[in-house]
Amino acid sequence: MLTHHRQGPARTRHRLAAGVLAAAFAALLPAAAAVAAPSPSPGSAAVNRSGTSFLTATVVSVGQPVRVTASTGDYLYWSFNATAGQITEIALTVTLPPATKRTGASTWTVDVFDGLRRRQACTDGVQTPVASATAAEVSLGCTLRRVRSWAEPWSGDPLPGTYYLRLSVTDLPEQDLGLPVQVDMLLGAHGDVTADDGELKAPLVPQVKPGGVLAASGSEDPSASPSANPGEAAEALDWLPDLSARWIWTTVGGVLAAAAGVVGFSLTWRRRR
Amino acid sequence: MITAVITSRWLRAILTGPLVALSTLLPTAAHADDNEPAEPAAPPKVELVLDVSGSMRAADIDGRTRISVAQQAFNEVVDALPDGTELGIRVLGATYQGKDKKKGCQDTQQIVPVAPVDRAAAKSAIAALRPTGFTPVGLALRGAAEDLGTGDASRRIILITDGEDTCAPPDPCDVARELAAKGTRLVVDTLGLAPDDTVRRQLLCIAAATGGTYASAQTPAELTDRIQQLVDRAKDTAVKPPAIVAGGKECAGAPLLAPGVYTDREKISEHRWYRVPVREDQELRASVSIALDRQVNPDYGVLLRATAADGRELVRGTDAGSGRTDVLSTGLRWSALEPDEESDPAADSTAPAHVCLVISNSFASSTAGDAPGMPFELTIDVVATSPAPDAPGLGRGWLLLLVLTIAGLLTGLLGGWLTRWWIATWRTN
């Protein structure tokens, strides 16, 4: 599939093998893919916190129920990890402060960003509902696009890596700010891993450590860069596609073709006894 | 030879595959470098700033005075603090009883130093508080920022007040912005006790200027919950503060950035330039988040562009919005096209080219002053480039199986007929 393996071809293959296994599991459990709304996975620990910025976003995983208390007007951040082929569903419920304390309608928004903090579109779900002045709670939802395994650098397609989600109230009477709310959040995911070609060498996981300004000459190496010396054997085998479900499909196709050939051949011979 | 290599690699892949699959299922922390040990961030420093001005005598929270409710809430929070939390307490308007505004507006003291908390001492200090004087919020914020000191730890001030600042100037909101602009990350969370419109606006302004939060408390339970929540949040969200950098006015001579997180400020309609060394076999990733730390007009945008040294645009990231928000973000990826295989690797791919990044914004404000500029966070990463995949050499799907089967069948039929024809010809001869 790829012609350049500048780093860790063995690791690449391991990851692909993992992908194939995950795909096999997904195929064995069709029920998991058919669920309409995300449901908490049994035994997963509940999360009761949230971050207040991209850097401090709380990491959650799929199926992990989140419940936090906050104030109207807070910006709440969570982050999660998505792999190639995954379609993530986000379900949020905000329990609003008592209607007697509020003075008007409020608009709530869930925004999703990828690891580069680029806005990601929702294909489904109520992303910006308006809660009326008397509503007791408001539900938000967002279904993301399927994560691609590779995309051109110039595109904004969703790629494997970290995703951020931000819950905020974008429009409300100013007096209603600062009242206590309770937020429930749950992530669901389904999808298949095998559909795409290409591979992102480094997932879109953002840097979190403070940076450093380099000397003006700029001769030093800017990063923990890939060691550019793959073995001779790896170089010689570059033309061979990576381990993937395609091998199975193609091999099965060959076997079927051979069997069909034998059948076809035998059809032309009249049985004589 | 080749088959042996293939078999051993595949065996390894099959054997380690499940382990990798397991490890990818487990939640992982958002760290970019696997090989670099995750340095734990220093424990956060928190200072509670409590207004003990005369207005705290008002008995309007479930029939109790505001100060007694605040004292009870503080006691509960001090009891519930996890060991090792660095917490200090500062009060304002607690001692000066006179009418002289000049003296009354200097009245702010730290009653518990910022250190792992001594519960008994903190409680007795809280119990001794009597509502007295003026409300010098701005000065108290300055004092609290000094108490927290500088350093690597994230710093949070929790300001609890019931009345507006009676000592401006300095306007507390300007003070908050000035403190935030001073460098190390300082966040002010505000809590209004039964606030009126003016107080709320002032606290909202302070919170927005530093990226903090605002909450109001109408009952004792709400106050306790809210303080507890803020202290917990300070502990949970401690990260190493980003490095401070000052962008250039043009590409030439702009600061050269290594991968990492930076923070800088940019005035409305200002441009800030940076340079990043990127080798031919590397991909540049950059993202920027501009914080709306002041009142701006409702529609706005941010633009992040990557240009070559000669000014040619390579790629851009942009986002726009309208209405209430905390930050406006965008990002970009860029890598050179396929690395040139023919070129001498020693000469070409190790000498990094400098890619320029420029950040501009389209905010507008009719009220807010220009300086000190709106804060933004810049994240730079340089990783191995991901080349475009070739067309797949293998197939997949039911259609492929069908086509192969039909082709096999036809080949078999053809072969069979040819053989029959050939045998028939051979026999007749």
Structure description:
The complex is a heterodimer of chains A (273) and B (429). Chain A has a domain at 25-191: Jelly Rolls (Sandwich). The model of chain A is unreliable at 1-13, 15-35 and 218-232 (pLDDT under 50). Chain A is built from four helices and twelve strands, in the order ααββββββββββββαα. Chain A has 273 residues and is α+β, with helices and mostly antiparallel strands. In chain A, 41% of the residues are buried. Chain A is elongated, with a radius of gyration of 25 Å. Chain B has helices spanning 2-25, 66-80, 101-104, 119-127, 137-148, 172-181, 197-210, 220-236, 398-428; strands at 45-51, 86-92, 108-116, 155-161, 186-193, 214-217, 243-244, 256-257, 260-266, 272-278, 282-291, 299-307, 313-322, 327-335, 353-361, 374-384. Chain B has nine helices and 16 strands. Chain B has a six-stranded mixed sheet with strand order 3-2-1-4-5-6, with helices on both faces. A five-stranded mixed sheet of chain B has the order 7-9-16-11-14, with no helix packed on it. In chain B, strands 10-15-12-13 form a four-stranded antiparallel sheet, with no helix packed on it. In chain B, strand 5, helix 7 (197-210) and strand 6 (214-217) form a beta-alpha-beta unit. The longest helix of chain B has 31 residues, at 398-428. Chain B folds into two domains: 45-236, Rossmann fold; 242-384, Jelly Rolls, CATH 2.60.120. The model of chain B is unreliable at 1-38 and 342-349 (pLDDT under 50). Chains A and B meet through helix 1, strand 1, strand 2, strand 10 and strand 12 of A and helix 1, helix 7, strand 6, helix 8 and strand 8 of B.
